[in-house]
């Protein structure tokens, strides 16, 4: 079920790789024999993760960059593509959320925009730089770390929700525009992984049940292996979905055009149908 002629990923680029979910994905892929290129802003933490990946026996290269800076991204991708020889899998993980849980009018619009910029401009710049490398190698897969807040309205985290909704649209566009050239794109919500970011969020105060980082890694690895290619352009959630459960739902998802950003209509008589 993989994209015709596109083999399982041998190399991956992961942004926001110095901590949290990005670190777990990088180390998890390395443990599966995937060579990894890592991008983050914190040099010391990044070096630690590079060492962890190499301890798994994998090739690992780390480059510091701000994903919202065009020149930083271009230089980082060029360096990593040279160090890895190719990029088969891109994981756009780097992201931020507002510091305070407030409705829109109570927030600083500049803070809201900062969140949108990191979470949307970052993946746009990184993907724009990686895609030519990926296409030159015959294709590949892009994973955008998304959230359920990108698909439903909420009373808080305006910038975060807006950014993830925009990211979902980007995923669908990317998959549609480049699938004929061997590229698939996916939205992956990591669930509630216990990280520095999530534990600082009041909405998770007192939470005792967390999504295992290995659940996220399993889905990223399955995407990289190509077994979920038929579901390109769609939304998965770690901790709820597994590769096996998604394959079991495959026909229903495709038949109902489900798991994607769509405008529901009122039925066959709705003029928007």
General description of the model:
With 273 residues, this protein is an alpha/beta fold. The chain has a single domain, classed as Rossmann fold (3-Layer(aba) Sandwich), CATH 3.40.50.720. Helices cover 44% and strands 13% of the residues. It has 8 helices and 7 strands; from the N terminus they run βαβαβαβαβαβααβα. Strands 3-2-1-4-5-6-7 form a 7-stranded parallel sheet, sandwiched between helices. α1 (20-31) runs parallel beside α2 (43-55) and α3 (70-84) runs parallel beside α4 (109-136). The longest helix is centred in the middle third of the chain and has 28 residues, at 109-136. The chain is globular. Belongs to the short-chain dehydrogenases/reductases (SDR) family. This is Short-chain dehydrogenase. Keywords: Oxidoreductase. One of its GO terms (cellular component) is membrane.
């Amino acid at each position: 079920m993989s994209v015709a002629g596109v083999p399982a990923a041998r190399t991956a680029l992961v942004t926001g790789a110095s901590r949290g979910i990005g670190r777990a994905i990088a180390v998890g892929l390395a443990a599966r024999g995937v060579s990894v290129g890592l991008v983050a802003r914190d040099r010391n933490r990044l070096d630690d993760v590079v060492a962890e990946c190499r301890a798994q026996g994998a090739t690992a290269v780390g480059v510091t960059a701000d994903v919202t800076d065009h020149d930083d991204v271009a230089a980082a991708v060029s360096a990593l593509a040279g160090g890895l020889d190719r990029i088969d899998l891109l994981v756009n993980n780097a992201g931020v959320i507002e510091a305070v849980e407030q409705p829109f009018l109570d927030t600083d619009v500049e803070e809201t925009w900062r969140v949108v910029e990191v979470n949307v401009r970052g993946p746009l710049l990184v993907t724009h730089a990686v895609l030519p490398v990926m296409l030159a190698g015959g294709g590949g897969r892009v994973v955008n770390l998304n959230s359920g807040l990108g698909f439903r309205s909420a009373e808080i985290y305006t910038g975060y929700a807006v950014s993830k909704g925009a990211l979902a649209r980007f995923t669908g566009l990317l998959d549609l525009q480049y699938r004929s050239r061997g590229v698939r794109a996916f939205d992956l919500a990591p669930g509630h992984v216990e990280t520095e970011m999530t534990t600082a969020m009041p909405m998770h105060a007192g939470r005792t049940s967390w999504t295992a980082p290995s659940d996220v890694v399993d889905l990223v690895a399955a995407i990289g292996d190509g077994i979920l290619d038929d579901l390109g352009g769609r939304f998965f959630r770690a901790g709820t979905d597994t590769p096996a459960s998604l394959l079991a739902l495959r026909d229903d998802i495709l038949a109902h055009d489900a798991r994607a950003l769509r405008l529901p209509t009122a039925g066959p008589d709705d003029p928007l149908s």
